[in-house]
Automatic annotation (TrEMBL):
WD repeats lie at residues 1066-1098, 1109-1140. This is Uncharacterized protein. Residues 170-335 form the Nephrocystin 3-like N-terminal domain. Keywords: Repeat, WD repeat. Residues 1-26, 47-71 are annotated as: Disordered. It comes from Amanita muscaria (strain Koide BX008). Residues 493-560 form the TANC1/2-like winged helix domain. It comes from the Eukaryota.
Length: 1238
């Protein structure tokens, strides 16, 4: 697209000179024939010879594309991408025309401005500033939505102050070519301008946005800035784009408004960027935009100013946008970023720093001649008595100094026309004198900035002046959110006049905007002055020192201003939500005064500054101690007030980690407690800030440091809480994954992922917060958390380390499953016809293919039938005629076929070191058998019959456990001598049933997830249960590498993140109560919980139970006392009933009922026990210890016996018929039945 005199364009599409019709025919023929070769001839050639690989290792993927669809096929011929039309509605077309402006080789959009139809030439000339056009009529869509947005568009206040359009007569060739790109169909939908700092990228972006807006083409624009919280992340990127699209077009507004009115749309505004894009833009606008005859332009500036992980998310999402709706065209600017090169590779990239020097020199000369002309100098300095303008020599010197960097030219103009000095002649002489002493042109901006600062603060300046300079400039550069000068003065403790004194001399690099907010004129200045490699620079600011200073300032501000009930709210308003309280004008006014912008900044950002600070600084330590001793809960209260108006991320875990090596041991423990406090109560505190004291603190564990230190804050509470837990329970967080959770994997660094059929989510193991979502139709994750996923037969890779994704390959046939090697850069994919393909990710190359794979279905819930060993050396997959194929994971060479009685394999699991393979096979009697194989050569090591389908290895591979929904847990040891399976007797494990998943920790703790009891932790070394964690319908469980965290997921998509050390000590309070009963004299209360624990309480002093017993292995469902109160009975979900003596709480008898269904209710007299399930009622003779009869055809939800054994009556309630039946126990007949209504 760009002409020869503009060097530096990198195009990723090779141009074909062949006539369009011939090209189309050639590509169509090639694609069909190659597909036939791979997926027909290839399979027939393989036949049943699974051990041979017909594909040579030199075969490589090629790509063909039609419209927006692409397909990669395997061929020995070197082919390249050919693209026809960017709009999916015209896929495969060789000529596309809109309106009257059309040729077979130059297809352009139909652009109207008023009554004019603009030709391509007119659009080019207008974009270059060579043609004047009438203003377009402004269209403002009626929008009643509350889309959150950042002030980030080209015509918003802040960006407008930072950027001006290109000076007339400059950048003409580049802007003309961008105009051509906008209007021509078939050009890349995303065009990237890449260039060094100061070369003029943002000015070009601003110019394109402004002029595209004049043409009615600009749908939206976003100017990133690391200095503003809303403009440095992806949080509000797509909601802002959606808002601007609503303003741009009435139809867009209506469609997006309809989407937001739905529940999914409402929730999408606070979801991840990918969800925002799909729900707010792609789905509502897909059909509307595709019917348009002109492009919709989006300008995105300074992607390098966005946080790294978000930048890659945005780039991937924008690629998805133009793929789904090709009429969108996106201009994106960025500094060179090597870690994004692989993502930019599929788009046109133009490198501004490679443009011919003569072109840029002429542009800079034109700009300087105008800016330093007599007329322009007079307009800037109207009180200047002696007219002045720059001479040709002056201009030549400045052009020579600027080189290719426009920022040097524009900053020079600021220096020369400094309003504080008002002497351009003197300023020019000083500047030229400095330039003469330096080698020009400047290759690096730092040399130029050194000249500017030496003029402001000469070498050897007063130390006080230098310290003030560093504090003021360092603060402005390091602030996470800009503050006006007045607030700045309060924060850093420097007089406003002193701040103005520093800024007055730096007007060329720091500009005062409206509201007196100082901001850096160009971000390159921040980079230079914070560069820690600067040699001998007196002006350099050490970022660590700067963050230490700001941390101290923030803590001082909080220590001075924070207090309990900071808004002084009285009466019932203390107990309403924060949003409700703030509806009162007096409260709102009080909040603006008490929680000023300075205190707000300190509360939000101190925890970020301290992670970059020197935590051993004595002043910082003193402030931290004061904050910890007096104000931590007050800070949490203010966080509650602030979060009622805005959202921001809080993570005390990062602060705790940064303080790890300090001497403040108590503070670290307090931070840990504070982190747990926030994790548990932040939702309530965000709803009502004063709940910090009224609700959260009273329910904080009484032995925690947080409670002990701050219990004084509850002195004024109306209510008192006693009998609370002593220590933190095991639950850290219970986030929602969404769909059923099939797998959980921890990384060595503590993050973990939860996997479902449609997406994989990354979670912080300290807080349980989600950081990233990857969606696809087939998903696979490796132990290092890299992810492979499939969408419409395209396979993509997501790299966890770089937080980026890229396309791998497209297959012409539907994919059944994929798996990923952690260490060997290999991916394997299977297809419904039995084909298995091994792919090299590092070189994007097909290794080999082989047949014989067997899969039950395309369901993602099926057990593992395809797997790499953890070290990537072996690949195993299930064979269609029974057994397992074991292959080399690097080159695909066959190792052995592992067959056991020709049985079909149900599940494959490698040992952690990759030396053994366990396979669970299904034999003819439909029972499962565990088989063990040596991965070196496929040697059979042993088998264990009648096991469950779930299998797990211990960390060292010496223990294997198996279990299932109808099989108890069984444990084996693998000896080094014979490598065989040796069964270990474990009576406690043998009683567990309904097992859904198993996992070992690094220290041989075993997690057993069951449908009945939740998750049980078992210490293998001591053969004892450690803890029971209630959790319904678990489907996946995993331990962190450091054994401090356990994560579990269930069928409903709920996750549970648990702290394992807390699980050891918090069992008495962790499970939900499932049954309660009073003794006849009300002196005792007995409770039963879901973890099977019985607790007995003295009702006169119920702060703690007087006894606690773990006698049941499943949830306690029912409790009942005998009429005289001497005994009580407890029943559980496994149909076990236990009799207890009330006085000493000893077990007098235990009964295991051989009946179907869960035990629901019991009633007991001196001689008789009645027990009910949903299907039956059974009578038990206590004296003879036997069943004497069954009553009726239906069960009962509730039972009650009369108090006298003579003429004993039993009442039962049937929930199906909603009726109560009274039985004569002696005759076993009903006396009466009556309905209780609905």
């Amino acid at each position: 697209m760009f002409r020869n005199y503009l060097l530096g364009r990198r195009s990723n599409k090779k141009k074909e000179e062949t006539a369009p019709s011939a090209v189309n025919e050639r590509v169509s023929t090639r694609a069909s024939s190659l597909t036939a070769i791979l997926f027909s001839g290839f399979r027939s050639h393989i036949g049943n010879q699974r051990s041979q690989s017909p594909m040579s290792q030199s075969t490589v993927p090629a790509s063909t594309r039609s419209g927006s669809e692409s397909s990669h096929v395997f061929t020995g011929i070197d082919t390249h991408v050919i693209e026809f039309g960017s709009n999916a509605d015209f896929a495969g077309a060789t000529a596309i025309a809109f309106g009257a402006h059309s040729t077979a080789t130059n297809n352009s959009y139909h652009i109207r401005l008023g009554d004019q139809v603009l030709t391509e030439t007119k659009v080019e000339e207008f974009m270059a500033g060579l043609l004047a056009l009438p203003d377009k009529m402004e269209k403002m869509a009626a929008l009643s939505t509350d889309l959150p947005r950042a002030m980030a568009a080209h015509n918003d206040y802040m960006p407008q102050k930072e950027h001006e359009p290109c000076f007339n007569g400059t950048r003409e060739a580049l802007l003309k070519e961008i105009g051509s790109w906008l209007i021509i169909i078939g050009t890349s939908q995303i065009h990237v301008l890449s260039g060094l700092a100061g070369i003029g990228k943002s000015t070009i972006a601003y110019t394109v946005a402004q002029r595209a807006d004049r043409l009615g083409l600009l749908g939206a624009s976003f100017f990133f800035s690391r200095k503003e919280a809303e403009r440095r992340t992806a949080e509000k990127f797509f909601t802002t784009i959606a808002f601007q699209l609503c303003v741009y077009d009435v139809q867009f507004a209506r469609a997006i408004e309809r989407a937001i009115s739905m529940n999914q749309g409402k929730s999408a505004t606070t979801k991840d960027p990918e969800t925002q894009l799909n729900v707010l833009i792609i789905e509502p606008l897909r059909d509307i935009v595709r019917s348009r005859t002109q492009p919709v332009v989006i300008v995105v500036d300074a992607l390098d100013e966005c946080e790294d992980k978000d930048a890659q998310v945005i780039l991937n999402a924008l690629s998805q946008l133009v793929h789904e709706i090709p009429s969108f065209k996106i201009l994106l600017t960025t500094r060179p970023q090597p870690h994004l090169d692989h993502l930019l590779g599929s788009h046109d990239v133009f490198y501004l720093h490679n443009v011919e020097e003569k072109i840029i020199e002429n542009d800079i000369r034109s700009y300087l001649k105008f800016s330093l002309s007599m007329e322009q100098v007079k307009s800037v300095l109207p009180t200047l008595r002696t007219p002045w303008n720059a001479t040709d020599d002056d201009i030549d010197a400045l052009v020579q100094a600027a080189g290719k960097l426009f920022i040097i030219a524009s900053t020079s103009v600021f220096v020369i026309l400094d309003k504080a000095v008002r002497n351009p002649s003197s300023q020019m002489k000083k500047l030229r004198s400095e330039l003469a002493r330096n080698h020009t042109p400047f290759i690096a901006l730092g040399d130029f900035y050194s000249i500017i600062l030496r003029a402001v603060i000469p070498p050897g300046s007063d130390r006080v002046l230098m310290v003030r300079f560093r504090k003021v400039v360092g603060t402005i550069v390091l602030l996470y959110d800009p503050l006006p000068v007045q607030a700045l003065a309060h924060l850093i403790g420097i007089e406003e006049d002193d701040i103005y004194g520093v800024l007055d001399n730096l007007r060329s690099v720091i500009i005062l905007g409206t509201n007196d907010i100082p901001f850096i004129y160009h971000k390159s200045f921040s980079d230079w002055i914070m560069d820690q490699d600067g040699k001998g620079e007196d002006h350099r600011i050490d970022p660590r020192d700067g963050h230490t200073f700001l941390t101290i300032c923030c803590l001082q501000t909080m220590n001075k201003r924070l207090k309990r009930n900071i808004l002084n709210i009285r009466g019932v308003l203390q107990f309403v939500t924060s949003s409700e309280a703030l509806k009162r004008k007096r409260i709102k006014k009080r909040m603006l005064k008490k929680i000023s912008s300075v205190l707000r900044y300190a509360c939000v950002y101190w925890s970020r500054h301290i992670t970059e600070a020197n935590v051993d600084d004595s002043d910082l330590i003193d402030q931290v101690r004061t904050f910890a001793d007096e104000h931590l809960p007050h800070w949490i209260e203010v966080v509650g007030w602030i979060s009622s108006e805005t959202t921001f991320s809080l993570n005390l875990q990062h602060v705790e980690q940064s303080m790890r090596n300090t001497t403040l041991h108590d503070f670290r423990e307090l931070l840990s407690d504070g982190h747990r406090f926030l994790s548990k109560f932040i939702a309530h505190i965000g709803s009502s800030a004063l709940f910090t004291y009224h609700s959260a603190l009273p329910f904080t564990p009484t032995e925690s440091m947080f409670y002990r230190k701050y219990k004084r804050e509850m002195m004024h509470n109306i209510c008192r809480v006693s009998g609370g837990s002593k220590t933190w329970d095991a639950v850290i967080a219970s986030p929602i994954h969404g769909p059923r959770v099939d797998r959980i994997v921890f990384s060595e660094h503590g993050e973990f992922v939860s996997c479902s059929a449609s997406d994989i989510k990354f979670w912080n193991s300290s807080t349980g917060t989600c950081s990233t979502i990857v969606s696809g139709d087939r998903l696979a994750t490796s132990e290092n958390l890299n992810i492979a996923f499939e969408s419409e037969n395209d396979i993509y890779m997501y790299e966890h380390k770089t937080k980026s994704s890229f396309h791998v390959v497209n297959f012409p046939e539907p994919i059944v499953s994929i798996t990923l090697s952690s260490t060997r850069h290999r991916l394997a994919a299977t297809f419904s016809g039995g084909l298995v393909v091994l792919w090299a990710l590092d070189v994007s190359k097909l290794i080999t293919g082989f047949g014989g794979f067997a899969s039950d279905s395309r369901s993602s819930h099926e057990p593992c039938h395809l797997a790499f060993s953890p070290n990537g050396d072996r690949l195993a997959y299930r064979l269609v005629d029974g057994g397992v194929a074991l292959r080399n994971g690097i080159d695909g060479e066959q190792i052995a076929d592992l067959e056991y009685n020709s049985a079909m394999v149900h599940h494959l699991v490698f040992s952690p070191d990759g030396s053994r393979l366990a396979s669970v096979v299904v034999e003819d009697d439909h029972k499962h058998t565990l088989t063990l194989w040596d991965c070196t050569d496929g040697t059979f090591l042993g088998a264990a019959p009648d096991v469950g389908p779930e299998v797990a290895f211990s960390a060292d591979g010496t223990l294997i456990v198996a279990g299932g929904r109808s099989s108890a847990a069984k444990l084996w040891r693998v000896n080094n001598e014979d490598q065989g399976l040796h069964f270990i007797e474990t009576p406690d494990l043998s009683s567990l049933e309904s097992i859904s998943c198993l996992a070992f920790s690094q220290n041989d703790m075993l997690a057993i997830a069951t449908a009945d009891t939740g998750i049980k932790l078992y210490d293998v070394a001591n053969s004892s249960f450690i803890a029971t964690i209630p959790f319904q319908k678990p489907t996946a469980v995993a331990f962190s590498h450091d054994c401090t965290r356990l994560a579990a997921g269930n069928e409903d998509g709920v996750l549970r993140l648990l702290d394992i050390p807390s699980a050891h000590t918090s069992q008495e309070n962790s499970a939900h109560i499932s049954a309660l009963v009073f003794s006849p004299d009300c002196s005792r209360l007995v409770s039963g919980s879901e973890d099977g624990i019985i607790r007995i309480w003295n009702t006169s002093c119920a702060s703690e139970p007087i006894a606690s017993y773990e006698a049941h292995l499943s949830k306690i469902t029912t409790l009942a006392f005998t009429p005289n109160g001497s005994q009580f009975v407890s029943g559980d979900a496994n149909r076990t009933i236990i009799f207890w003596c009330t006085n000493d709480c000893a077990i007098s008898n235990a009964i295991r009922w051989l009946i179907a269904g869960e035990l629901i209710s019991v009633a007991v007299s001196n001689d008789l026990l009645a027990a009910a399930t949903e299907d039956t009622i059974i009578l038990w003779d206590r004296q003879r210890s036997c069943i004497i009869d069954r009553l009726g055809e239906c069960g009962s939800m509730l039972l009650s016996l009369s108090n006298h054994d003579e003429n004993l009556l039993l009442a039962s309630f049937n929930s199906h018929s909603n009726s109560v039946t009274v039985w004569d126990v002696q005759s076993r007949t009903p006396c009466a039945t009556f309905s209780v209504g609905k």
